[in-house]
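DM from R.C. (forwarded with permission)

"hey, sorry to bug you on a friday — could you get me a structure for this? deadline for the figure draft is monday and I only need the backbone to look sensible"
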Amino acid sequence: MILWEYSLLDCKWTHIMQLPKSHKKGVTCITGVIISPTDALVASTSSDSTVNIWEVAFPSTSGGKCNFTLLESIHVGLKPMVALSLAELPGDAGKIVLAMGGLDNKVHMYCGERSGKFVRTCELKGHTDWIRSLDFSLPILTDGEPDSIFLVSSSQDKGIRIWKMTDRNSPASTKGTYKKEEMSLSSYIEGPLLIAGSCCYQISLESLLIGHEDWVYSVVWQPPLVFSTLATTYHQPLSILSASMDKTMMIWKPEKTTGIWMNVVSVGELSHCALGFYGGHWSPNGDSILAHGYGGSFHLWRNVGGGFDDWQPQRIPSGHFASVSDISWARCGEYILSVSHDQTTRVFAPWKNEASLQKLDPWHEIARPQVHGHDINCVAIIKGKGNHRFVCGADEKVSRVFEAPLSFLKTLSHASLCAISFAEDDQLGTQVLGANMSALGLSQKPIYVQAANGTPDRNSNDGFDTLETIPDAVPVVLTEPPVEEQLAWHTLWPETHKLYGHGNELFSLCCDHEGKLVASSCKAQSAPVAEIWLWQVGSWKAVGRLHSHSLTVTQMEFSHDNKMLLAVSRDRQFSVFSIDRRGSEEVSYHLLARQEAHKRIIWTCSWNPFGQEFATGSRDKTVKIWAVVAESTVKHVTTLPQFGSSVTALSWVGLDRLKNVGLLAVGMENGLIELWNLSAKGGEITEIPELTVSLAVRLDLLMCHVSSVNRLAWRDSEKSADCRSMQLASCGADHCVRIFEVDVD
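My reply, with the result:
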């Protein structure tokens, strides 16, 4: 458990302290209640079947020390608690009530004081499955005095229960609230009594809410509204937000005349890709609701109606929810493509048509070209002319080729505020509007422009296809950044080819700089399997099988003149192949050099854009620079000072072609990134160049990844408007894709 502080002045979060570990297993829920401006109580529960009560003493001045004290540890038996909620009882200052629920299907009520000493007082029965969420309201006022409090509970039995706790000594309880002759639809079903010192509280079932069709993971009361201009009195709105695995969130309110609780708002995610919502949350003023779903996806709705409910989906940040394995820039740098072990391929791009005074354009996920059934390990964008295409490899033996549909091309033109970036004849030839995911397979089927404009002709003979393609995607041209519902289903790219050949799961891909050849490798434990396949772009025929390594080839890269292919492997060796194209169909190749370069696995490599030098990075924490001499042999040039962690990613960018000056980005297993200046002094091509290396910058710790950097990629500086300002992209095992702006003096 970690305590954070939010500063209202600079709007920043600060790490204050980490609490001593008091649970033996993972913490599953924490809750708290503010007692005074300087004191609070916090309760935590864990799968170790204990509930801990903490006292928090906040500092009276800014920058002071915050003290956490463990007041009590409650053992709850063999069935752990899952949900907790704390509240201060109305009518008796100093009494705290703790509700807990979990695997025994009951809500257990404990009562205590600010100093701890919580005693079990009663239990609430009714749910028939695990309790998933509990939340107390603020005290409810009657004739200006607080006399009752609500508790809402949700369960895997798909039901929500509202419990009312009323002080038996309050005026409301003496006016015949519970008299039998006043029974009606909104009457209370009396439950047990909660004894808190000298006070007695009657617990009754206020309402049973049925509406969700799956587990209800979260229920929460709407935040209190300011009741006075002095901000000292708050009003508790009678409004509950529930989130369920049925992919919906609902808002519940009591009907004004009868008092019966009704579902007044329902919002949800209709895509079949979603697995439901794990939680919901109100905005402070109650005009927005946020849900989080499988994979950490966020879903936001805002009430845009004036005086009536009109909840509309809103844009929200998105990203991968598993290790990001590879990234690739578009051929002109308009966007970046990333693939991940979350089995998705995503396109991120700056959206330039937003009215923003910021120096940098805001980046958004503008498409999700592939939603797959296997973890995706590698990707390569085809750099040649024509439509946007990419090849990706996953934990399967086949590579898949995708081509941009017309809907994406027009969306990209809106994002970049320019015309579609390929020839008009290619645009006319793009007759695919989007793609449908086959629910029973891994392929994405094209949606043609003619079919989208007319009604699909489906006869009885294509019943299997009908089942596979329901629900149909609706590809549209986006004039603003898309929301999660659009991304998850309506921005797919059609799959155009499958490349068969490898015997194991794909591991690495690369494309030459003219977009004519693609190289691929797979996971290997023997030399026959560790071969590199060459594919002809367009015909997609296999035109070469390169043998050199005995274990998995971890990364490959073509030299910038496309005459050589560099490969590094788990067998600690690198190989340089000479590639010679004889016409449009014939490709000849031979092994130029192979050398054991490091003491451990070689993870990464990168060519100098302006010369014949290349860099290799290894688990032995070193980066070595090599040079191809006389187009026949490879010589070692220099070794950078040893790094503090395994080197997992390299990317070399040129700064000055005449002086052969460049920057080498180095990514490490600990998440850190460094930039090194490299300057090669001229000499004959038969000589080893003199290389000057120096550390340019070590990126700030908070800017870097928190686990292994999987790939680094510079945006093509020769095609950018300002070569003095460049962008470096990185991806890592921490699920993040990061874009850095690098200004060169």
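R.C.: lifesaver. The CA atoms of residues 181 and 187 lie 10 Å apart.
me: no worries. The mean pLDDT is 85.
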